[in-house]
């Protein structure tokens, strides 16, 4: 089951680079993160601290918008052009198709984060850095990216319109990241605690601060699993109808 998924992932990753999507994402991501880490207000030199807090803050919000833009066409465009039906007639399962596309997006994001390692090397040379916190920061970005990729694939699986998929993915992201946090503060008691746990922001911030709790990891894995199950259900219905 794993081999077809890796083959699809390799093909999709190649498509990213052939269509210049990968280069545009990498250059823009590095440009934004580099500018706000080293040049703009609250940058490393302004705060006079050997820290990558400004980078992680910028990287989070950059990926928050980039990932839905990356995933919006993964299934929606193929559904519109009819190529998804052709793909699903081949000897592959819907799970293999989904995980192949998921891995392609995740590898591209991982490459983008890997290219920022010079930031870390530079900061280490500027002063004492809590390497554990930095590693947790990267880990939290990867977990967050995995969650948003799966959400983006679900949004792309339910529509043939890329813009609708983009907006739906962004709405779900805003709901999980901000709205649940706001509601949890407004409510008291068990309801507030439940909404706080469901908020992606609280789990991301916890790991980014250097506290790796199994509950936070389970949360992100659950988001990925639920989103992929819903996307698989959507594709399965399409396959049956064909």
Can you tell me about this structure?
The protein has 242 residues and is mostly helical. The chain has one domain. Helices cover 84% and strands 0% of the residues. The two termini are 23 Å apart. The mean pLDDT is 83.
The assigned structural class equals: mainly alpha
Strand content: under 5%
Q: What separation lies between the terminal Cα atoms? A: 23 Å
User: Mind summarizing the main beta sheet?
Assistant: none
Q: Give the assembly state of these chains.
A: single chain
Number of strand segments: 0
Uncertain segments are none
What best-fitting shape do the alpha-carbon axes yield?
globular
| Annotation field: number of helices | 12
Our count of domains comes out at 1
What portion of residues is helical? over 70%
Radius of gyration, CA atoms, in whole angstroms: 19 Å
Order of helices and strands: HHHHHHHHHHHH
- The overall pLDDT, averaged over residues, is 83
Question: Key terms for this structure?
Answer:
mainly alpha
